[in-house]
Fold this sequence. Notes:
By secondary structure, this protein is α/β, with parallel strands linked by helices. The chain has a single domain (9-239), classed as Rossmann fold (3-Layer(aba) Sandwich). It is built from eight helices and seven strands, in the order βαβαβαβαβαβαααβ. The chain has helices at 18-29, 41-53, 68-77, 104-132, 152-172, 190-193, 198-208, 217-227, and strands spanning 9-13, 33-38, 58-62, 86-89, 135-140, 177-184, 239-242. It has a seven-stranded parallel sheet, with helices on both faces. The radius of gyration is 17 Å and the shape is globular. It binds nicotinamide-adenine-dinucleotide.
Amino acid sequence: xxxxxxxxxxxxxGSARGLGAATxxxxxxxxxxxxxxxxxxxxxxATAKELAGLGHRAIAVRADxxxxxxxxxxxxxxxxxxxVDILVNNAGFxxxxxxxxxxxxxxxxxxxVILKGSFLVTRAVMPQLIERRWGRVVNISSRSYLGNPGQAxxxxxKAGILGxxxxxxxEQGRYGIxxxxxxxxxxxxxxxxxxxxxxxxxxKAVAAQPLxxxxxxEDIADAVAFLASERASFITGETLHVTGxxxx
Length: 248
Ligand SMILES: NC(=O)c1ccc[n+]([C@@H]2O[C@H](COP(=O)([O-])OP(=O)(O)OC[C@H]3O[C@@H](n4cnc5c(N)ncnc54)[C@H](O)[C@@H]3O)[C@@H](O)[C@H]2O)c1
């Protein structure tokens, strides 16, 4: 299946490592030019260097997506590739704790990066997508949008991402722009492996997933690449669960 991603330009936020890096790799393999961006500038450089070493076109931009000035710099840097066609809003993190112990910072930092960050980057690239009457926005939500104990902040942000996705799909469809979300389940990334009690969490997650394995970053990368492609041109406002069959 030809995804027709050759010579499209994609920004993938939070792509220094984990799901974002795997997505950047996948899009590059399909011939897209990739702007690898992360608050971790060195990590972004390393990912972009790896891709360039494989003969792909990639640049690294250090940007904190919660900073308007950084986001402006990111969009300006993408001009090197002639502007943006595809945006993957992937950067995000949990700060898990029970509500009664949740600090203002636990709440604000998660909402700020996931919701405000996705808003700022999307708002900055949308005029270009509208102008070329073609665009793809893929937002990384989480199965946690369904509501997990200890994740009032993260579940709220990831549920908010689905509202953001549907609102933009309704708003921008007339310009040939699709906006979809991917909701990953338990995926094995560095971030997840560094959790306390990782092995126990992993065992429980595998048992709860009908496909009885953990998700790999490439599972998300494949889903994102499909939604970013020409093959998904009649799909918008959708949430693709990549959870090994787990919904509850
Ligand atoms: N790994 C999982 O099991 C899982 C499950 C569901 C959803 N997700 C979501 O997928 C996304 C990627 O997760 P991951 O496991 O690869 O995490 P990760 O921590 O490996 O990657 C996230 C990246 O985002 C970057 N980042 C954080 N704040 C930023 C900011 N303000 N500006 C720019 N970059 C910033 C980090 O530096 C990091 O490189 C996140 O949104 C996460 O919530 C992950």
